[in-house]
């Protein structure tokens, strides 16, 4: 019973968070001094000369309908909530008119998900394993070396790591393409090969930087846990070090990291922007950048709506699974 | 039996070593409840850690050793400092101060029990068979087997301490060291825990060492008591005799300060404070607070020796007394 109440309340806050988020991104572009319909008409006029005023009025009207800009701001808002939020229909892309923005996003999204999921999960697993060893056996030389490496890599700005990888492996050694080209034509094998070649360096760069953070955070968590009375007492109880490391230190310090993982999976879009720009990887990150540069409002709206939904859903999931991994937490 | 042979231990600090335990020489016999009493900071817990062989930086042993011997399942064993840790839980176990923090907070008690039972003891028993043994042991101790399904935070302080005692005694070790086992609990629960410990000891005939600053605890359950002051034993003897007629001036003042039902006289504390272990007085460490201290007491360290049959003390005055009798 308690769980239902908690779940209901949590669901309401989840919906509210998304609503507030999308409200902001709906109204902010509409406060811009530029008007996409006038921009479009200007573009058409500069290409095909002066238009008949009547024709122009008709064009303006049909563009307003197409762009979802007809009616009062309130009507537009309701229409956007209905179409955009519930059906992920954000209207046509203004740049690639009339292809729907949602359709374009749908072709790019899997690539971003593929890249971000793999690199985030791998970084989490590798980083936590190393961090646990470094924290639990902090007096061992190998632990100190591993932690030293993590401390050296972590503060290096991400774009530097990405650029160095690209210069060394793509430009100097030529093992990977400079521009990610995913070959969708030449059959499954060719497609997978090109996908691997295109995503290896982006994934590696995210992995390197991500792992550093997980190592450092897990190291301090597990070092603190290793000092706890119950770990000391487990030793006095004659337990093997391996067992203490796994069941006493890791299980207690991984709790925080699971929440952090959910958060970083939700935020994977943000990390994707830089990676995809540097490696010209065909994902949503690169799409957002292009949309902003070209004032493609519907596209911006679409990408950011999806990102907001992803982050708040990830937090929701983290909150809901936490009681299953930590018995001390109960829904209330 | 546990033999403590000329044992000295110290903590390494930035100002040099601090001698916390100094020249201890005594035996803890089989099948007895032995109490170690003394005020905070006199080295009780450090002594217990050395007895249990928890010697890690900054604690180190300067000289002497501890010898643990006994017979388990017909096999005799003798282990000295450095080897005792191999016998942890099997031949010697440790009950810490009643605290929430000594059990893994996110593991059910049954899993923590299973963790503490060595593989060779379980043989090819299934998990449930081992747990059945644990359940019947808990019943024997008057504990509900339901605690096995609980997480530590779901138990009250008293229940948790009982569960820890059950955990520490399940392997029926010959020697159980208990460090302030009742300190954080209220008197009613305290009594229950003490009864549980004594009943256990009577039934399994093992040795129980209890460290406590509470003289009442020692009076209630210990067969023999050792009184520590500033890192050394000042007196050791059978509980009844020691409480009836304490020999060392420190034990006399300590016992004199205990309230007695019906006695309406005002109780006095012991004036002054225990000396700093970093910079102890040269002679008897109690001399600065002793009302009967002589010049010799301030100069010369008294020897811990048998003054009467079964009674040991470290005091120059007792020596002089003995001489004047002779």
Highlighted features:
heterodimer; A: 332 residues; mainly alpha; MetI-like fold; 2 domains; 13 helices; globular; B: 326 residues; alpha/beta; four-stranded antiparallel β-sheet; 11 helices; 12 strands; 31% helix; 26% strand
Describe the protein in words:
- The complex is a heterodimer of chains A (332) and B (326).
- Chain A contains 13 helices and no strands.
- Chain A is an all-alpha fold and 332 residues long.
- Chain A folds into two domains: 2-87, no CATH class; 104-297 and 316-325, MetI-like fold (Orthogonal Bundle).
- The termini of chain A are close together.
- Chain B has 326 residues and is α/β, with parallel strands linked by helices.
- Chain B contains eleven helices and twelve strands.
- Chain B has helices at 44-51, 109-116, 119-122, 127-140, 157-169, 187-204, 215-221, 239-244, 249-256, 295-299, 316-325; strands at residues 2-13, 16-28, 33-37, 59-72, 75-80, 92-95, 175-179, 207-211, 224-229, 232-238, 305-308, 311-313.
- Chain B has an eight-stranded mixed sheet, with helices on both faces. In chain B, strands 2-1-4-5 form a four-stranded antiparallel sheet.
- In chain B, a hairpin with a 2-residue loop joins β1 and β2 (16-28).
- Chain B starts with a strand and ends with a helix.
- In chain B, 39% of the residues are buried.
- At the A-B interface, α9 and α10 of A face α2 of B.
């Amino acid at each position: 019973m308690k769980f239902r109440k908690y779940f209901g309340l949590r669901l309401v806050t989840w919906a509210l968070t998304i609503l507030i988020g999308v409200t902001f991104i709906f109204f902010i572009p509409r406060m811009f001094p530029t008007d996409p319909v006038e921009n479009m008409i200007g573009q058409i006029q500069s290409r095909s000369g002066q238009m008949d005023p009547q024709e122009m009025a008709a064009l303006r009207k049909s563009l307003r309908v197409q762009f979802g800009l007809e009616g009062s701001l309130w009507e537009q808002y309701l229409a956007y909530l209905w179409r955009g939020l519930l059906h992920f229909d954000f209207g046509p892309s203004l740049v690639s008119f009339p292809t729907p923005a949602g359709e374009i996003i749908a072709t790019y999204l899997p690539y971003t998900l593929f890249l971000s999921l793999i690199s985030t999960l791998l970084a989490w697993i590798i980083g936590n394993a190393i961090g646990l060893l470094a924290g639990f056996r902090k007096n061992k030389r190998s632990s100190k070396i591993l932690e030293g490496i993590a401390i050296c890599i972590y503060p290096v700005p991400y774009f530097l790591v990405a650029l160095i990888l690209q210069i060394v492996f793509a430009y100097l050694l030529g093992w990977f393409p400079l521009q990610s080209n995913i070959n969708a034509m030449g059959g499954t094998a060719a497609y997978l090969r090109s996908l691997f070649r295109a995503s290896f360096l982006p994934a590696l760069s995210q992995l390197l930087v991500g792992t550093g953070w997980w190592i450092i955070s897990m190291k301090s968590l597990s070092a603190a846990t290793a000092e706890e009375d119950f770990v000391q007492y487990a030793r006095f109880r004659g337990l093997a070090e391996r067992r203490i490391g796994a069941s006493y230190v890791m299980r207690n310090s991984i709790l925080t990291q699971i929440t952090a993982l959910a958060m970083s999976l939700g935020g994977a879009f943000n990390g994707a922007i830089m990676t995809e720009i540097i490696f010209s990887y065909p994902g949503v990150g690169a799409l957002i950048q292009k949309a902003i540069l070209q004032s493609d409002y519907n596209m911006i709206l679409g990408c950011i709506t999806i990102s907001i939904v992803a982050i708040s859903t990830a937090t929701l999931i983290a909150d809901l699974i936490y009681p299953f991994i930590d018995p001390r937490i109960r829904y209330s | 039996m546990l033999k403590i042979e000329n044992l000295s231990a110290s903590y390494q600090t930035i100002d040099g070593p601090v001698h916390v335990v100094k020249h201890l020489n005594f035996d803890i016999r089989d099948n007895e409840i032995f109490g170690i009493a003394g005020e905070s900071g006199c080295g009780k817990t450090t002594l217990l850690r050395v007895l249990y062989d928890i010697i890690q930086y900054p604690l180190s042993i300067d000289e002497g050793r501890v010898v643990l011997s006994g017979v388990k399942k017909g096999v005799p064993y003798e282990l000295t400092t450095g080897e005792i840790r191999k016998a942890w839980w099997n031949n010697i176990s440790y009950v810490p101060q009643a605290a929430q923090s000594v059990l893994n907070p996110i593991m059910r008690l049954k899993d923590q029990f299973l963790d503490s039972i060595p593989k060779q003891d379980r043989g090819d028993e299934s998990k449930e068979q081992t747990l059945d043994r644990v359940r019947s042991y808990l019943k024997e101790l008057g504990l509900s087997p339901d605690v096995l399904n609980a997480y530590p935070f779901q138990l009250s302080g008293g229940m948790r301490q009982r569960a820890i005692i059950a955990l520490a005694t399940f392997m029926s070790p010959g020697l159980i060291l208990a460090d302030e086992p009742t300190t954080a609990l209220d008197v009613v629960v305290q009594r229950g825990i003490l009864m549980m410990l004594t009943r256990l000891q009577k039934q399994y005939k093992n040795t129980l060492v209890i460290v406590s600053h509470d003289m009442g605890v020692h009076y209630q359950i210990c067969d023999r008591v050792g009184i520590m002051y500033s890192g050394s034993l000042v007196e050791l003897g059978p509980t009844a005799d020691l409480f009836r007629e304490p020999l060392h001036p420190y034990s006399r003042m300590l016992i004199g300060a205990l309230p007695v039902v019906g006695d309406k006289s005002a109780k006095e504390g012991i004036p002054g404070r225990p000396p700093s272990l970093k910079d102890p007085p040269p002679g008897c460490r109690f001399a600065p607070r002793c009302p009967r201290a002589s010049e010799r007491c301030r100069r010369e360290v008294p020897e811990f020796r048998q003054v009467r049959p079964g009674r040991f003390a470290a005091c120059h005055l007792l020596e002089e007394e003995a001489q004047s009798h002779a």
